[in-house]
Amino acid sequence: MSIWINDSKIERNILNALVNVEDDTSRFLEDYGSHEVPLTGSFIIILKYQLEPLKREIEEWAAKEFKGNAIVNLDYEDIASKGLEKDYGADFGFHLIINIDDHLYSERGLLVQAKNPRFKSDDSEQLWEINRPQLSVLMCRSPFSVYFLYGLNKTDVKIRVIPASYVKNILNKTGKKSISPKNIKSFSRKFSNFFLYDFIGNWWGDTDESVLNIVRGTDDLVKVRHIFRIEISVKKEEKDNKN
């Protein structure tokens, strides 16, 4: 799938880093249990750790491709640790800013609810329990909102991404309070593919100002537990107009 980063090596390196995020997060889940709050915080730290080494490579490519001064920023803010709110609008608020002079400007926000697996009594199948009121609020805030479904490393799930609207449809169809790998197979994507080709690729995410204010951290009423911001900017070099 083609995205605005039209360099196969850059795409491959980002994808590999995101696959590592899937592996490391699923191993963390197996090693330290299924408490969502610490796993959610660890996921963001792992994501930044894997993407940080690629900043220079992306900057060098962007400077050459778009003929300007390129800067890549990765910012992470742990809102939950500040104790600003007891109830959060989502676990994650991802904020993407692409600002390339004379080529592309885009700002998108993505609200994400993360879910750890639960198991049937015989431990044969992973299940993700969905809080219906939470789902409704998430969908009202943004039609682009998604769920991150964490899975064990030994399974083929690891981290799957599914739109909140699809989760609602599955629950309505099955009449259950949880969803299973069989339910999501046709409606979800691997986190690595989604985050690169859909989100960073600038195909998926909300441009509505209300959502942008949430992921900017400027909404005083609606907070997310963690904000992760990716900003890619290229400024054209000013020409000397002196005679």
Features:
3-stranded antiparallel sheet; Restriction endonuclease; alpha+beta; 40% helix; 7-stranded mixed sheet; 243 residues; globular
Structure at a glance:
This protein is an alpha+beta fold.
Layout of helices and strands:
Elements: H1 8-32, H2 36-51, H3 55-66, E1 68-78, E2 90-100, E3 104-115, E4 118-119, E5 126-129, H4 132-141, E6 146-150, E7 159-163, H5 164-174, E8 178-179, H6 181-184, E9 189-190, H7 191-200, H8 209-216, E10 224-236
Parallel strand pairs: 2-10, 3-6
Antiparallel strand pairs: 1-10, 2-3, 4-5, 5-8, 6-7, 7-9
Order of helices and strands: HHHEEEEEHEEHEHEHHE
Q: What does the radius of gyration come to?
A: 19 Å
Number of domains: 1
Round the mean pLDDT to the nearest integer and report it: 90
Number of helices: 8
Low-confidence stretches: none
Count all strands and give the number: 10
Strand order of the largest sheet: 1-10-2-3-6-7-9
Q: Give the amount of beta strand, in percent.
A: 25-35%
Termini separation: 47 Å
What structural class should be given to the helix and strand makeup? alpha+beta
Biggest beta sheet attributes: 7 strands, mixed
Shape: globular
**Fraction of helical residues:** 25-40%
Organism: Methanobacterium bryantii
Protein name: Restriction endonuclease
